[in-house]
Amino acid sequence: MHFYTYDGSFEGLLTVVFEAFERKAWPTSIEPEHLAQPSMFGEHIAVVTDEEKAGRVWQGLQKKLSINAQQALYHTYLWEQAGFEQTIFDYIKLVFSSTQSIEGHYTAPCVLQVQQAAKQVHREKHRMEAFVRFQKTADGLYYATISPDFNVLPLIVRHFEKRYADQRWVIYDTNRRYGAYYDLSQVALVNLEVPPHQRSMPLAPEARDAQEDSYQQLWQVYFSSVNIPERKNPKLHLRHMPKRYWKYLSEKQPRALR
């Protein structure tokens, strides 16, 4: 039995693939090093991320997979559910051992799992793009928090970079404790040390722009005015806007008393 550990990065996982093929030692399990549990049985192989080795694996996959399949594989990494590393490894191993395309080979569990995981991540990406709401801070920075089911922050930054190219903004993932910061020229992924009790809280009144409350109230008034009671369809509404996303939406917050 071979137990692999890596640093948790996508490049690190591709390095695990390279090392496993180099050693002909197929993994029994693959885990991030900070989560791995020591075992008395089998061989523990701690893999150090190597950009060159990871690049060689990815170049090999690019020759055998379509753009959509490459994207699905990366989305499976962002899926983060238990066992996703082994699924990715099994998929890549099948790719390199097959003379024909495996992309429609859904009888293979790893192929079906990658397809399903990619769909879930893609759906969460679009929901985050639709439901994120920014608050303007006193220094002109637009700030938003998210807590997605999957690690979709790297996938949504391009959308906001295009849509809000003329303003500085930060989107902070409260579950994974990192954020994306746009400085009017480029986006950088940054680690933010936010205390646990503040991660999901709205900005304090003194930190908000003076007009922010007025903007949010105007949005709530608009939402109420276009919401025709006779045409309400709660089931359809919940399908398009699940309740777990309401915390992001200004129009779903209690109306301030004036």
From TrEMBL:
This is Probable DNA metabolism protein. Residues 85-251 form the DUF4130 domain. It comes from the Bacteria.
